[in-house]
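look at this record:
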Amino acid sequence: MNTSVRQAPGRNTAGRDAESAARGEAALGEARLRIAVELGYPSNIGAQCAAVRREVTERLRTWAGMDVSDLQVSVERLHSAHGRHTDQERVR
């Protein structure tokens, strides 16, 4: 996973807490992420990648008070539900 993080211009981070984040106040900074995932197949790959984007964006906003300006999700490997005999198998 590659990550780039920067503080929002002109923001003072002192006094920010979970309550202010829950009220939807402006984020403390911005993050750009690239994530590689392994997914089961057959499945709706687009929907799974969208779910990863939503989850990562929500958690980063909640835990760190940061917005995600760019999140790239790439599928590194697909796991077949029909042929799981060893950990080494790949779907090509």
